[in-house]
Amino acid sequence: MYRVAGKFLTFFCFSLLLGGVAHAQEDEVSFEMKLSKQKLGINERLRVEFTMNKDGDNFNPPPFQGFKVVMGPSQSISSSWINGKRTFSKTYSYILVPTARGKFTIKQATIEISGNVYKTLPKTVEVTAAVDKPSDQKTVEDVADENLHLVAEVSKTNPYLNEAVTVAYKLYVSPNVSVTNYRFLDNPKYNNFWSQDIPVTKHVAQNATYQGKPYRYVVLKKVVLYPQKFGSLEIEPLALEIFVDVPTNRRDFFGGRIYTQATKTVSAGKRTLRVKPLPEAGRPLDFGGAVGDFEFSVTASKRQLNASESLQARVEVAGKGNLKLFQLPEPELPSALEVYEPEFDEKVRTLSSGMEGKVANNYTIVPAFRGKYPIPSISFSYFNPKTKKYVTLNSEEINIEVLEGPVGSSADNTVAALGNKQFVVPTGKQFHFIKIRPNLTKIGASYFFGSNTFYLLLFAPLLLIPIAVFSFKKREAIASDVVGNKIKRANKLAKKYLSRAKKVLGNKEAFYVALEKGLHNYLKAKLKIETSEFSKEKITSILTEKGVDSEAVEGFISLLTSCEMARYSPFSDVEMQNDYEKASDVISKLDKQL
User: Fold this and answer.
1) Among 166, 211, 513, 553, whose Cα sits 20 to 30 Å from the Cα of 282?
2) Which residues contact 49 (CB under 8 A, 6 or more apart)?
3) What is residue 194's three-state secondary structure?
């Protein structure tokens, strides 16, 4: 028995050791240099690749002594999910031609990953005399590298804080190759920006020149950014997987060139914006952060009315700029006027040049007394980035005259002094009048006292006391159940977003946004985790711990992945319907198992 126990203990320790080694290997960072060959002729080409398994910054290539760089660096990114585990690879590629014969050492390259600097090992390459038939002519990947370029064109690289910046992602394609399809891999996360995607409905190829050569380009994605902080802000790269037809040196029976299909990952690269702060000189005291070119007005639906009647006062800003990112000024109204909470009205659309439209607050005002009430002029200030100056606009003074109604305590028809406005909450009946001459009739004692109504009214308070105590306890228990209330709200939101997704079937952008929100809120309700914790690894781990089978977990993860990708890729109505039905099926399976 001791031998069996000893063997079991040895096996257990060995398993732990293997698990620790596997975990260490899984988290290990690799950064290496790969050469297409160690020995080549002086008329051949050398391909050098620097590959890492985690994303890094500040890549520094070595000085390629003895070689001339004819192409590169070209950057490719590969990212995939297999059984809930992410695999990542990023490669910088160079094509070199030797400039002399001899042995040359390609020195170390460096990269910064998670705050640490990693280096490759140097490698030696021997360059011999020219060969009769170079074995390393341009490969399909080389041709694709030379003829495909993804570029992020930024409208302004040095904008002001809260000034609109448009980023257009253009794919430049040489006439030598043909693109058959593409899909988005890694979409940028626009940290420190307010962002809005501009849907690209048609991909129209246009002729252009890139690096002095004729190309065709297609705009694949547009986004409008409003920087929310000043300083140096980075825009993450966009990565695409391109399916391209590349010509070969072979020809068919009729002499036509034979094409082969290649898959190429291209990246737009990082872009850096130098965001300027708004100037301090000349900044108005009432400046609220509006940046653009605006018009400002305050209007009233009536100038004359009677007491107990209502009017609408509208404070409106219209024009181009960050309309959704500032607050409207509030009017100063006499304290004798009842002012209801304003209703916000927004009619804003986001174009390639930024937001334009109008925003307004509508105030409902009800005067209580007869007299004259001035609504004084108020100011609205904004910064115009074109003129680089602050502008202050003032509204006109509006005089409201109440013709009929009770006289105020001042006995003066004109209200000269202004106070703070008072916001009131509507109750359905705005005015109640006291009847000073009631029409009462005497009730006989023999008719009421001793009747069923008398005893019912007498004992009703005693019956209502336990009901009131029970109701109070019930409300207190519900209010103290914070987790339960969160789950109820999340369930309502999940139903809301799934129903919203069903309503917008056919509208790709809105459908996948609504579907993704519905899936997230469903998990939030069932698993009691906050939205900030959502990641595919976290979801997979929790669902597995809850005993959900792998098929349901993979189905849910694949749905989230589809939501991320499909918003930026062409999808048909049939595929959207299939995704909605798949979401319903996956949620049904999770319900049964959770």
Assistant:
1) 166
2) 33, 34, 91, 92, 93, 94
3) strand
Give the CA angle between residues 457, 460, 464 to the nearest 5°.
155
Say how far apart CA 556 and CA 300 lie, in whole Å. Answer: 53
Q: How far apart are CA 83 and CA 301, in angstroms?
A: 63
Q: How confident is the model at residue 410 (pLDDT cuts 50, 70, 90)?
A: very low
CB 548 within 8 A of CB 540: no
The candidate with the shortest Cα–Cα distance to 176, out of 262, 95, 118, 105, is 262
Alpha-carbon distance of 412 to 554, in angstroms, equals 77
Report helix, strand and coil shares of the chain as percent, to nearest 5.
25, 40, 35
Average pLDDT score over residue span 366-395: 93
Distance CA(522)–CA(534), nearest Å, equals 12
Map residue 19 onto helix, strand or coil: helix
Asked whether the beta carbons of 96 and 45 are under 8 A apart, the reply is yes
| CA atoms of 399 and 418, how far apart (whole Å) | 13
Q: What is the mean pLDDT of the chain?
A: 79
Confidence band (pLDDT; 50, 70, 90) for 428? very low
User: Residue 214's pLDDT is what?
Assistant: 92
Neighbours of 73 (CB within 10 A): 17
- Residue 587: name the closest of 534, 527, 513 by CA: 527
> Encoding tokens for residue 141?
């990947």
Nearest CA to 366 out of 311, 325, 289, 442 is that of 311
- Are the CB atoms for 238 and 186 separated by under 8 Å? yes
Tokens of 227: 């920087």
Distance between CA 172 and CA 149 in Å, rounded?
5
Tokens coding 326: 């500032």
Greater confidence, 79 or 188? 188
Q: At 81, list the tokens.
A: 């999910």
Helix (H, G, I), strand (E, B) or coil at 22: helix
Spell out the residues 6+ positions from residue 146 whose beta carbon is closer than 8 angstroms to its own: 71, 138, 174
Neighbours of 60 (CB within 10 A): 12
Angle at 475 between CA 472 and CA 478, to 5 degrees: 150
Nearest by Cα to 400 from 337, 447, 494: 337
Q: Is the peptide bond before 367 cis (omega within 30 degrees of 0)?
A: no
Provide the pLDDT for residue 138. 63
CA angle 165, 171, 177 (to 5 degrees): 170
| Spatial distance between the Cα atoms of 91 and 101, rounded to a whole number of angstroms | 28
- Average pLDDT score over residue span 407-427: 48
> Which 3 state secondary structure label does DSSP give 481?
coil
Q: What is the DSSP string of 319-366?
A: EEE-TTSSPPP-----TTEEEEPPEEEEEEEEETTEEEEEEEEEEEEE
Instruction: Give the range with max mean pLDDT: 90-104, 269-283, 533-547.
Output: 269-283
3 state SS of 284? coil
Q: C-alpha distances in angstroms, 109 versus 56, 80, 583?
A: 13, 26, 46
Angle subtended at Cα 517 by Cα 266 and Cα 554, rounded to the nearest 5 degrees: 65
Closest CA to 117 of 44, 202, 56: 56
